Structure formats: structure tokens, C-alpha cells
Amino acid sequence: MTDGLRVEIDGPVATLTLDRPDALNALTVPVKIALREALGSVARDRSVRAVILTGAGRAFCAGQDLAERDQPDAAPLDVEVRERYNPIIRALRSMGQPVIAAVNGVAAGAGASLALACDLRIAAEEARFVLAFGRIGLVPDSGATWFLPRIVGTAKAAELAMVGDPVDAAEALRIGLVSRVVAGTELMTEARTLADRLAAGAPLALSLTKEALQRSLTIDLDQALEGEAKLQGIAGASADHVEGLAAFREKRPPRFTGS
Ligand code: T3D
What we know:
The chain has 259 residues and is α/β, with parallel strands linked by helices. The chain has two domains: 5-199, 2-enoyl-CoA Hydratase, Chain A, domain 1, CATH 3.90.226; 203-250, Orthogonal Bundle (Lyase 2-enoyl-coa Hydratase, Chain  A, domain 2), CATH 1.10.12.10. The protein contains eleven helices and ten strands. The strands form two sheets. A six-stranded mixed β-sheet has the order 1-2-3-5-7-10, with helices on both faces. Strands 4-6-8-9 form a four-stranded mixed β-sheet. Strand 2 (13-18), helix 1 and strand 3 form a beta-alpha-beta unit. The mean pLDDT is 97. Bound molecules: ligand T3D. Residues 23-24, 26, 62-67, 69, 77, 80-81, 106, 108-110, 130, 132-133, 136, 138, 141 line the site of ligand T3D. Ligand T3D binds at residues 23-24, 26, 62-67, 69, 77, 80-81, 106, 108-110, 130, 132-133, 136, 138, 141.
């Protein structure tokens, strides 16, 4: 536990909870450092097979802490983005485990970017997304301009990023910004059930799937076909593939070990 971030590991699932509810879990330097370190440590922990990112209280995350930004010793924005935000986004994308954003409430600014960088997004009915950057004269950062068009298409991305109106949970579901919406009281149960299902999967195959989906966004079909063949060679040589075949033959659930 660091001020502003709670890290709980329960069996194969790590839950990272942004925990400054009075400031809607806005991101300060210590929270950003703690989040980056926690993601690195979870990525290295082979016992963790799925990760949930969520927020305490009524918000997921309100982005950059604007009170901290007002301080005279605050780093220049480009430095802050390069040195504090971007490593978090890279960590989310490069870690082998799938990361679920359990969006419990408002996700604004870089808080929305954090959710966009996760592999799956499920939302409470109370959730809303606000690309709040423009309202304070900034551009979307922390990957928002990269993720948004890929997730919702260029037309909707332009509207969200330039107009900046809040997107409620129902609309987020409709445009594919989240894949499920549940009652707020059910969100963490739903997230845990999903995380447990992912954790029961073959870790190597899941991590290679994450890698292939990520790479597909920047390559052509021929490169994707060749990439899939290479990754299938790796997955096909794993003990988990042997176990998967044995479980199929013996009509029992597989017990994957990640080897
Ligand atoms: O380093 C850099 O600056 C570069 C990186 C930039 C990345 C970014 O994230 S830029 C975008 C920063 N975030 C925002 O601009 C969002 C600001 N917040 C809001 O627009 C609204 O608070 C929300 C839409 C998120 C929620 O609105 P609402 O009406 O539900 O809540 P509220 O009443 O506005 O806020 C509740 C409290 O949280 C309030 O404090 P108080 O008055 O009760 O003491 C408010 O000041 C505080 N709060 C909300 N957002 C932030 C915040 N405190 C600090 N930083 C915040 N971002």
C-alpha cells in the first residue's frame, strides 16, 4: 500500500486501486511512480495471471491532479508526460497479463487514457468518460490519440477528443468503448469473475495473443499472418498446449502452468 494506490494480490489476480477518493483519484507524482512500480512488479510476478485496475470511491480517475500542476515546482508538461505518464501506458501494454479496467465512475483526462490502455474495459452504470484535456487547453495524451480511433473509429474519436462531451456508460457500450456495463454494486464481482476466467487460461498463449492484437494495429495482413505463424510455433511448443490437448481428450478442465 502506497498513499494513493492500493495493491492487492489474491490468488492469481492482482487488483490495483487508485485510492485518493477525495480528489477523484487524480494522479499525483507519487501515485504515478507507485502505479508504474506496481505494474512492473506485477508483470514480473508469475503467480499473477490477470490484473484489475479500478478506483476507490465514486471515480475511476480524474486524470492529472490539477492542484499539483499549479505548484511552482511542477515539471514542464512534456517532461511529465514523457517521464511519468508514458511509462505507465507502456507498462500496461507490454505486460504479459491481461489488464481489465473496472471503470467504477468518472474517467477523465489521463484517467480515461489509463482505461483505454487496458486490454478490456467493463463499466458500472455510473461510469462516464470525459476527454477533458481540451477544456483546460491541452491535447489528449497518455496514448488517448492512439487508442481512441482504434477503439471507436476516427469519426467518434474526433468528436470525443475535440468536443469533449461526457460519454455515459450506455453510450460507451454502444460505441464499443467498453465491452460490458453492470450495476455499480456488481462491478468488482464481475471484474473478478472475468479476471478468474482469464487467469484460468494458458498464460503464455494469452500473453502472445495480447502481443499479436497489439502488433496487428500497425502491420499489414501478410505481416500479421506470418506473425501468427511464429507465435503459434511458440505456443504449440509449450507444455500448456500439451496439457490443453490432454484435457480435451480426457474431457476435463485444463490445468495450465504457464510453461
Ligand atoms: O502533467 C500534466 O499536467 C500533463 C498531463 C495531463 C493529463 C491530464 O489528465 S489533463 C486533464 C486533467 N483532468 C481534468 O481536467 C479533469 C478535472 N475534473 C473535472 O473535470 C471534474 O472534476 C470531473 C468531470 C472529473 C468530475 O466532475 P464532478 O462534478 O463529478 O466532480 P467535481 O465536483 O468537479 O470534483 C470533486 C472533487 O474532486 C473536487 O474537490 P472539492 O471541491 O470537493 O474539494 C475537485 O476539485 C476534485 N477534482 C476533480 N478532478 C480533479 C480534482 N482535484 C485535482 N485534480 C483533478 N483532476
